[in-house]
Amino acid sequence: MSMSRARVARRIAAAAAYGGGGIGLLGATAVGVLLTEARLARRVVGGAHESPPHADGRYGSAFVHRLGRDPLLLGVLGDSTAAGQGVHRPRQTPGALLASGLAAVAERPVTLRNVALSGAQSHDLDRQVTLLLDDGPAPDVCVIMIGANDVTHGMPAARSVRLLSDAVRRLREAGSEVVVGTCPDLGTIEPVYQPLRWVAKRLSRQLAAAQTIGVLEAGGRTVSLGDLLGPEFAENPRELFGPDNYHPSAEGYATAAMAVLPTLCAALGLWPEDEERPDVARREGILPVARAAAEAAAEGGTEVTAARGRWALLKHRKRRHLPAHTEATPHHAWLRVGRGS
Prior knowledge:
Layout: H1 2-17, H2 28-44, E1 57-59, H3 64-67, E2 72-78, H4 80-83, H5 94-106, E3 110-114, H6 125-134, E4 141-145, H7 148-152, H8 157-173, E5 177-181, H9 196-217, E6 221-223, H10 231-235, H11 237-240, H12 250-267, E7 285-288, H13 289-297, E8 303-306, E9 311-315
Parallel strand pairs: 2-3, 2-4, 4-5, 5-6
Antiparallel strand pairs: 1-3, 6-8, 7-9, 8-9
């Protein structure tokens, strides 16, 4: 299955690179069923109209006087998952969780700037990148979570990948490191039934693999969210899904954040060097990019980083418990914060 997914991912990524609109992964009838049942599923889930909590601000204030250095800047872009839809407290959002964790690892304050938009598809990333870069210095590192709405709204996969790759490239050119949480496994949403569940799983995993190829080519890193929003959520829907049975709960966001945090830190050179070498015992290694992308799409928490040429490093980083965190210190003078070194 992974080899087949690798071939499809290569085709989608190639179409994206050459400006193709899309590839017929499934017949028109199957896609029609997907879109129809997705609309029905959206009617079933509730509570999705509430705005996600505003979590922008400074985290790790305890480290302000220890080093006397400017805060690291963390940008978050994407859809409702990146925005933190489904929870009620700012500290429960993925942006706040990652900012708190990054501050603890770096022993340095972190300023969070979240421009994600609930309901966003990949075509909104251009606006989000512009908003992020125009409002101050480029972030030291950015996290993007996108793709679910592309699948449920029928956006051609090649176009989705191209839009994401363009956003990653713009951020990298501005000097930001970029980590992308790839498309989650939509086959686990509780109100979604067959045949939509099977179709959604297949499409979301194919998109996640293709996203990985595009992101690596644009200079970013990826972490698979598919499996994290898969078996764990399916087995514990009341604990890991929020009240609307669609968006993650506080525990679900914490699970995803624990998987992304090590890659976020590694992108900034903050992870122990001995953990950067592939560990064969943990099934890590150098693989062809497409194969690494396909394997990552099937296992949540898997990182893929460009190695050399058409090769990529596949890693299963050890998850660290997130530190106890507090609400952000309101920081309205974000524009005046200097970029961290």
